């Protein structure tokens, strides 16, 4: 089974104390996922597929640059408070959580983060460091104002690369020229079924919803 997921705006395993702590972020992922399920399931589509890990990573990058009331609201909404994650440990635990993903050997799992910055935008050095060290985020500059189509093409190329071609296009037209930053997370998963389907039992039958 191969899945490509991309989000704009879990996997459970413990390997020592560091990864046990990273499990707190996993718990926060679950809380966020359950909170969003009723909202996403109200859409017209009969099936919903989303990744709490992706959402948590994406919004974790937003949290890293937030302050004041916004940061407090994100702390609550993203499940950190309910999971009893200390505010001063969030970024370090996200780093450990991402490292734990890379330790999985029985399937192919990759999670990539990025930030497309408006040309000329200056972000705080501490924020840039947090994105790179805690989320291993790739940062690149695009010109949303004068080269909107090229900016979208650059973002779409990143998406296609990190979903291994499963999502070749995220945006089909230029973004608003006053866009400051696009934060991205992409997940690629390929794994084997514990019990594989036996093709000899394949037969045509009506599909009932």
UniProtKB/TrEMBL annotation:
Occurrences of domain Serpin (ranges): 32-200
Molecular function as annotated in GO: serine-type endopeptidase inhibitor activity
Pfam family, one: Serpin
The keyword Cytoplasm appears for this protein: no
Cellular component per GO, a single term: extracellular space
Signal peptide (from-to): 1-16
Annotated localization: Secreted
Highest taxon of the lineage: Eukaryota
Assigned keywords, A-Z: Glycoprotein, Protease inhibitor, Secreted, Serine protease inhibitor, Signal
SUPFAM superfamilies: Serpins
Main subcellular localisation: secreted
Database matches in InterPro entries: Serpin_dom (IPR023796), Serpin_fam (IPR000215), Serpin_sf (IPR036186), Serpin_sf_1 (IPR042178)
UniProt keyword Glycoprotein, yes or no: yes
Family as reported in the entry's similarity comment: Belongs to the serpin family.
Name used for this protein in its record: Serpin domain-containing protein
């Amino acid at each position: 089974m191969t899945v490509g997921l991309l989000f704009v705006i879990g996997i459970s395993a413990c390997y020592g104390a560091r990864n046990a702590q990273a499990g707190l972020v996993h718990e926060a992922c679950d809380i966020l996922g359950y909170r969003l399920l009723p909202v996403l399931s109200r859409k017209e589509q009969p099936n919903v597929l989303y990744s709490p890990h992706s959402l948590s990573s994406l919004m974790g990058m937003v949290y890293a640059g937030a302050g004041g009331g916004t940061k407090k609201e994100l702390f609550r909404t993203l499940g950190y408070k309910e999971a009893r994650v200390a505010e001063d440990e969030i970024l370090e635990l996200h780093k450990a959580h991402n490292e734990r993903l890379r330790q999985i050997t029985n399937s192919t799992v990759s999670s990539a983060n990025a930030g497309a910055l408006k040309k000329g935008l200056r972000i705080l050095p501490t924020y840039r460091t947090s994105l790179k060290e805690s989320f291993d985020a790739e940062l690149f500059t695009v010109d949303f104002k004068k080269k909107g189509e090229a900016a979208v093409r650059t973002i779409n190329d990143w998406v296609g690369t990190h979903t291994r071609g499963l999502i070749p296009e995220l945006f089909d037209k230029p973004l608003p020229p006053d866009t400051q930053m696009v934060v991205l997370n992409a997940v690629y998963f390929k794994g084997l079924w514990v019990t594989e389907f036996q093709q000899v039992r394949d037969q045509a039958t009506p599909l009932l919803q």
